[in-house]
Amino acid sequence: MRPHGSSGTPSPQQFTSGDWRAIRGLLPYLLAFKGRVGLALACLILAKVANVTIPLVLKQIIDRLAPGQGVLMVPVSLVLAYGALRFSTTLFNELRDGVFAKVTQRAIRRIALSVFQHLHALNLRFHLERHTGGLSRDIERGTRGIESLMRFTLFSIFPTLVEMAMVAGILSWKYDAWFAIITLVTLGIYIALTVVITEWRTAFRRRMNELDSRANARAVDSLINYETVKYFGNEAWEAQRYDENLARWEEAAVKSQTSLALLNGVQSLIIGIGAVALMMRAATGVAHGHLTVGDLVLINALLLQLYMPLNFLGVVYREIKQALADMDRMFRLLTVQTEVQDQPGALPLQVQDGVVRFEAVNFAYDPRRPILHGVDFEIPAGQKVAVVGSSGAGKSTLSRLLFRFYEVQEGRILIDGQDIRSVTQGSLRAAIGIVPQDTVLFNDTIYANIAYGRPDATREEVLRCAQAAHIHNFIEGLPEGYDTPVGERGLKLSGGEKQRVAIARTLLKAPRILVFDEATSALDSNFERDIQEELASMARHHTTLVIAHRLSTIVDADQILVMEGGRIIERGTHSALLVQGGRYSELWALQQSDEDEASRG
């Protein structure tokens, strides 16, 4: 059974287009350091020149050791030159690494930041559909792939090509053409087979990574929902599903490893045949007096220097291809277009009175299932409008549209007469504060979560907002006070405690427009009364939209809208709606009955 999102075995052509896309995405970050890149390449070439010159000096030393002469007859200058060249090879390689380090790390930093910013710029629909574990693994592998590509391309492939050209040139210059021909033919066959076999086995590697991302996404999703797993006793079921992904990963990993063994065997065979052919020709030349023993040592040393890096060519090529594939997955994230974008020349929202108006708004998450139908209402400055209705009526969609997480299909939303589609999203969201029904906190301290409403706020301002949200005394009673960690998604706090942190955070933001989306749903009755008083006080100074389930919390609203099926079917004050005897009156009677039963129980 193939995992969701798998497209089978990609073709080499697919790799090529993705590879070039990844390279094009990386180039702008490299061109920002043209000087350093050029200096690193110069150091690389100098290191290879020194490396190839070593066998030439070694030949001179051996040839000077003619029969009957002692070691003392070896020119000291040649020995010193030999040592200097050995040192120069290491020196220039280290200089290359040091010069290029900033290029690599800065490119990784800038690309990672670009991806992070782009992900935050994407619309809510993308984030509701994504798998956090798989996405984080793609970004992690993509940034690591940049470093791998830099290291293997600049430090392995390019140096090997330079050295191949130098060795072929020396063999052609000092000896007959057959030495160069044998070397080049061997290298050509070696590279061709390496590329072909590596392309074949890269499919296994890609599938490995795909299944790895899927298994990681499965594990993260399961651990995030730890409590749900425990509630239903599904630990074994989660382990089974995780193991199914691991089993498919294991199968791909075994194929990848066994194909690597085949590649290494073929490479060793080709190198062995080429080396034997060259050494036989060199030994024959020495036997016939055409070549010296120094020539034999020179040819052998050149072959060793050339073939040793070639032993890793398959690994290097595979790693480069894998790095490009990983980078391509990450760069593809940058190509995802958001549904909601600022218009060219969009200006900041100018909030004066804070009047909010929905004008004949139609909206659907999916065209096949409309959510809102001609919704039309206004929230005058400083007034509170509440929206009630059964689940699925479209109440929470109103707040998402107001924040412009989605664009309306028809109609418009105005704030002080300005269409929110014509202003910048940043200024729009800065003017609105929300206390959501499901409060999710960062895995940080209580203080940091409250201060998130306005990161530059003073400690006194943070504490004042905590007091207003009636959570200060609770925090002070904790062993670590405001430095208490709240855990993953705030799971160390109760629902009511998280809700009060959310209220304090919104108070600190001090927006002109407020949205309460079931803001007191997680509070007990005692705290609910206290918080309702504070929310009522806040609402007196703000334009407020309240999405409510408990009707008792919105009896003081200036206007109440009753929604059903995405339409406003009733509107008016609490008392007026009760007099009408319509849907609101039914909901009120039902809730009063439930509360009476609960109090008797």
Quick structural gist:
The chain is α/β, with parallel strands linked by helices and 601 residues long.
Give a written overview of the molecule.
There is one protein chain. This protein has 601 residues and is α/β, with parallel strands linked by helices. The chain folds into 2 domains: 19-335, ABC transporter type 1, transmembrane domain (ABC transporter transmembrane region fold, Up-down Bundle), CATH 1.20.1560; 358-431 and 514-601, P-loop containing nucleotide triphosphate hydrolases (Rossmann fold, 3-Layer(aba) Sandwich). The protein has 19 helices and 10 strands. The protein has helices spanning 12-31, 34-64, 76-121, 124-129, 132-174, 177-224, 226-231, 235-287, 293-310, 313-335, 395-402, 425-430, 446-451, 459-468, 472-476, 495-509, 525-539, 574-580, 583-600; strands at residues 356-363, 372-379, 384-389, 410-415, 418-419, 432-435, 513-517, 543-547, 559-564, 567-572. The strands form 2 sheets. It has a 6-stranded mixed β-sheet, with helices on both faces. The protein has a 4-stranded antiparallel β-sheet with strand order 2-1-4-5, covered by helices on one side. The longest helix has 53 residues, at 235-287. The radius of gyration is 35 Å and the shape is elongated. The two termini are 52 Å apart. The model is unreliable at 1-15 (pLDDT under 50).
